[in-house]
Design goal:
The protein is α/β, with parallel strands linked by helices. The longest helix is centred in the first third of the chain and has 13 residues.
Length: 229
Amino acid sequence: MRELDCDQLPVRQVNEAIRGAIARGESEIRLVRPGARHNLAVAVLNDVRIVVDGPVGYYCGGMGDGVRLEIHGSAGWGLAECLLSGRVVVDGNAGNGAAASIRGGIVVVKGHAAARAGIAMKGGLLVIGGDAGYMTGFMMQRGQIIVCGNAGPALADSMYEGVVYVGGEIAELGNDAVVSDAGAEELSDIAATLARYGLGCPPTFRRVVSGRKLWNYDKKELDAWKAAF
């Protein structure tokens, strides 16, 4: 495994070194002493394993396509934003906007995720081993979110499509979000996914989807539209 010491390198040089190692045929890269800096391992467009030994700052792993990123620590805002494919796994917690606007791939936060996790998702899977902050799944368009713990207020607000599974308590549903019990097949798939990443599985999950009332404007529902916007 190719090892890069980030301590004395500017972030631009770290990312250039990652791309250089990939160009030379390296399939596994380890970043040591990341120092919680921002924009590490962004725009990696290759099937390569990158292990980060320590916490990272904002936007780590953003705009990736095929990357397999493991973060042995916590992550700041914008983790894996706009991921197209691949896998990003964080051992700790994640800041605001984890997995925002992803189109595919898997993002796993083994700890808690702050506000707006999975907003504007257009595909893919976000797994949160702990609690999720407010407005998780806001304006989600496709994909799945699994929250093992509790979900904060305005969950799935203005969701278009997709599904959010919550194993704990829901503080408040967002506009046009409706809840039902998850089916046996869904629960089996969730349990298998959580086991794959070493996460415990709650005994049951509630399923949150769009009520579809905001899909088409109806002047009779003006108050609902005002609340949404």
